[in-house]
Every structure is written in C-alpha cells, then in structure tokens.
Amino acid sequence: MLIKNGLIATAGDLYQGDIYIEDGIIKEIGKDLDIEDSEIIDADGKYVIPGGIDVHTHFHLDVGIAVSSDDFRTGTIAAACGGTTSIVDHIGQGPRGTTLHDPINHYHKLADGKAVIDYGFHGVIPYEVDDDRLKEMDQLLEDGIESFKIYMTYGQMVHDEDSIKVLKKAKEKGGIIAVHPENNDTVNYLKKYYSENGMTAPIYHAKSRPEECEGEAINRILNIAHLVGDAPIYIVHLSAKLGLDYIKMARDRGQENIYAETCPQYLVLDEEKYNLPGTEGLKYVISPPLRNKANQEPLWRAVREGDIQVIATDHCPFLFEKEKEAMGKDDFTKCPNGAPGVETRMPVIFSEGVMKGRISINKFVEVTSTNPAKIYGMYPQKGTIAVGSDADIVIIDKDKEVTITKSMLHENVDYTPYEGMKVKGYPVMTIVRGKVIVKDNEFIGEEGYGKFIKRYKNDELVRF
After folding, report:
1. DSSP letter at 290?
2. Is the C-alpha dihedral spanning 196, 197, 201, 203 positive or negative?
C-alpha cells in the first residue's frame, strides 16, 4: 500500500509526503515514492496521522445493575469509524475472592475473535491488597499488563494503606498505577443527603460529586505516591481546575512521575446538561460529573501547555430508555454511571481543538495517540508514523463538515451526548496494520482482526 501526497502529522513534525506499507509495517517514508504493484491511496489535501489510541474504555463492563452496551466487536467498530486504531480497556474487577488474573482471563475471552482493532487491558486492583496479589502484579507485568487501576471510591475501592503497597510495587517493577480519584466518604454522604431530602433530579448527581471530592483525592494520592519514592501515577478523567492545580503543585515541588488524562466531555460539555427538560439530564450521569463551564478553558490550556498529556474517553455506554432513564427517572442515585464517546473523541477534539485554534495538529496527535502509547508501553510500535512502526494510520479530511447524530454513529447505544454538534474535520479512512477497515464512515474490516497488545514495562519513565 502506498499513501500518496498526504500532509503527514506526528507529535513533532508536519510535512507533505508518501508512506509505503508492507506486511502491516511502515517500510518507507519519502516524497514522490513510486513502488510497483502497490495499492495507491491519494491523500492529497488531507491530514495523515497515527491512528488514535484510546486508553480508557469500558467494553462489556458489568456494574452490578447493568452491563455496558458495547462489547469488543461493536465498541471497536465504533472506535475505528471515529479514527481510533488501538484501545486499552479498564476491565471489571469481578466478584470478591477472585485473583488478579481471573478478570484478565475473562476479558481475553470477551475480546478474542471479536475486536476489529488492536487492544490491551489495564489490570485492576480490587478490595484488599495482600502478598499474593502483589506477586500477581509481578506476573502480569511479565505478561504485558504494564498498568493497573485503583479506585478511591465505589464498593471495590482501595484504601490508602493498600494504595501505598500497590504504588510501591509499581515503582519497583516498572509499572504504572491509574487512579480514579474521588473522596468516597464525602460522595456517599452527599448522595444520601440529597436523596433523603427529595433532591433527586439529575443536577444533584453533579452536586453530590463536587470538584472538591476529586481535588482532595488527587492531592491525597499524589502525596502517597511521593512518600513511596515518586511512584508513577496516572490520573484518569480529570474534570476540573482544582484537581489540575494539585497536580501542578506536586510537579512544582519536583514530583515528576505524574501523568494526567482528561476527556472530551469535560472540554466541551458542562453541568447545564443536567437541567435539560424531563429525564434528558440522565444521559450525562457520569463520574466524575460534568462541571461548571469555567473549568473548560483551564483544561484546554493544560492540554496545550503539557500539564495534561492525554485525552481519552471513559467510554461506558448504557441504553438510555431501558437503563439510564428506566432506573434513574425518580432518583439519580439509581442511574448507571457512564456515557458513550469512543467514536466521537477524535472528530470532536480535532474540530474544537485544531480547527478552532486551541491546539496545534501536532498537539492533537500527541494527546490522542503518541503520549498514550509512550505512557502505556506501546511506543514506537504504536503512536507514531515512522519506519518500523505498525501501519496504524488515519486520514482526516479537514474540510469535511459533519453534524453528529446518533443515526450516523456505530456505537451500540440509543443516544450520543454530542447530538447536533457540528464538527469540521472528520476521519475518512482508518488503516490498522496496513489494512483499510473503515472508508467514508463505513466499516469494511473483519471481526477478530484485532490483536492483543503486549505492553512493555517502563524501565525508564517517559518525561514530557
């Protein structure tokens, strides 16, 4: 395959050129390449970028009261149609008493033969942490599971003492810990208070999980990481300026191994969505919740200046009519938390970021592909356009204008949070390991084409 005349954008470069692909690998990059018997793709006037990497999805996630509606087939098809060529899924913990390997093995069965793009899994640390689980972390690191997640809230939360053990192990062995940061006791108190006092409309979801809950938890876990020798830590779905300020403060005191992720919903949507008529606000019941609009510009600035390194999605869809509305119509606390976004991430951030001048095309590539690959042990196999890298490539028509509607998306859910949003610039071709799997918003790939990504340990941590 020979991609001709494209405007090739990586995290560090922007130039017009050609890309020759053979056996799923980028073999040559240059100008005016002429290689016989090649399939020619003319990308003149379009951006050619490394495929998007979404390192925060929840496919087939069982939350007890519901299971997220995208499995590894529908979810990865949607991802591909939106310009994403690899995902790393945050898996469910499973019931109490399971080993760390049990949910990984379960998710291998869920994904194998279904995924259409390449995929990996984050390990997950549930409940108590004992010596057996710490030994399992060693084993999983050798098996290509380079990252583990802990929750500071929910029933499966990890308490501070166990967080210390997990962070210490990651520091010793070259892993990284992803953290869902919210103050559990405060959230539970506020949820109970609002519910018992009849304040059950969707807006009280946001009020029950205020930015102070996120900020306090971020500050606490960063201090703990500092106490165990600056252990590597990754803050997921950062939603507000307060948490960002704590991250910057920790970095200012010399704590280097901190990485932060935000999501499109926190950059372009705000808490007024909870005040929509009827039950519409339940569509936006996610955790952390949408915030006051004043948080958006500080988050964009942090992306631009490098204080936030990754934009992922936290894609976790539930059917609106059958689940979110049916369960939550009388009480927000009964509504399953989560929303779709894996298909809209790239076009929304390209349009709102690049086309509106908030970030450069290079920064766009950096936060949607290159940095996720570097942090999570996939670079340079993934996340860049370079000789020897996997030919995971997306072609974006920067002039293509699209109005996002549920009907044009491939996500297996009955709504999109971005309904009616007009975007400029849209992926028109997705290539995974040298194979075109999406063309003009039509999936033409093969179920089961996706491969498991064995991610390497970070013996030398990435510096940004």
Report:
1. P
2. negative
d(CA 282, CA 439) in angstroms, rounded, equals 33
Burial status of residue 424 (CB atoms within 10 A of its CB: 0-12, 13-18, 19 or more): middle
CA proximity to 226, closest of 173, 147, 171, 174: 171
Here the tokens at position 145 are 């599971």
DSSP calls for 116-158: SSEEEEEEE--S---HHHHHHHHHHHHTT--EEEEESSSTTPP
**What letter would DSSP give residue 445?**
S
CA 347 to CA 398: how far, in whole Å? 10
Beta strand ranges found along 254-295 (DSSP E): 258-262
Q: Phi/psi of residue 141, each to 5°?
A: -60, -35
386's CB contacts (< 8 A; 6+ apart) are 10, 26, 29, 380
User: Which stretch of DSSP H or E encloses residue 25?
Assistant: strand 25-30
* Closest CA relative to residue 67, chosen from 76, 58, 80, 56: 58
Nearest Cα neighbor of 261 from 14, 407, 53 is 53
> Rounded to whole angstroms, what are the CA distances from 10 to 41, 89, 448?
19, 24, 28
Count other C-beta atoms under 10 Å from residue 229's C-beta: 11
Dihedral of the alpha carbons of 44, 45, 51, 56, in degrees to the nearest 10: -160
Determine the Cα–Cα distance for residues 215 and 320; give it in Å rounded to an integer. 30
Determine the Cα–Cα distance for residues 76 and 113; give it in Å rounded to an integer. Answer: 12
Return averaged pLDDT per consecutive 10 residues of the chain, 464 residues in all.
98 98 98 95 98 98 96 98 98 89 97 98 92 95 95 93 96 96 98 97 98 98 97 98 98 96 98 98 98 98 98 98 97 97 98 98 98 97 98 98 98 98 98 98 98 85 58
User: In this structure, how many other beta carbons lie within 10 angstroms of the beta carbon of residue 405?
Assistant: 12
Q: What is the pTM for the complete model shown?
A: 0.97
Do the Cβ atoms of 146 and 458 come closer than 8 Å?
yes
Residue 79: φ, ψ to 5°: -60, -50
CB-neighbour burial class of residue 75 (10 A; exposed 0-12, middle 13-18, buried 19+): buried
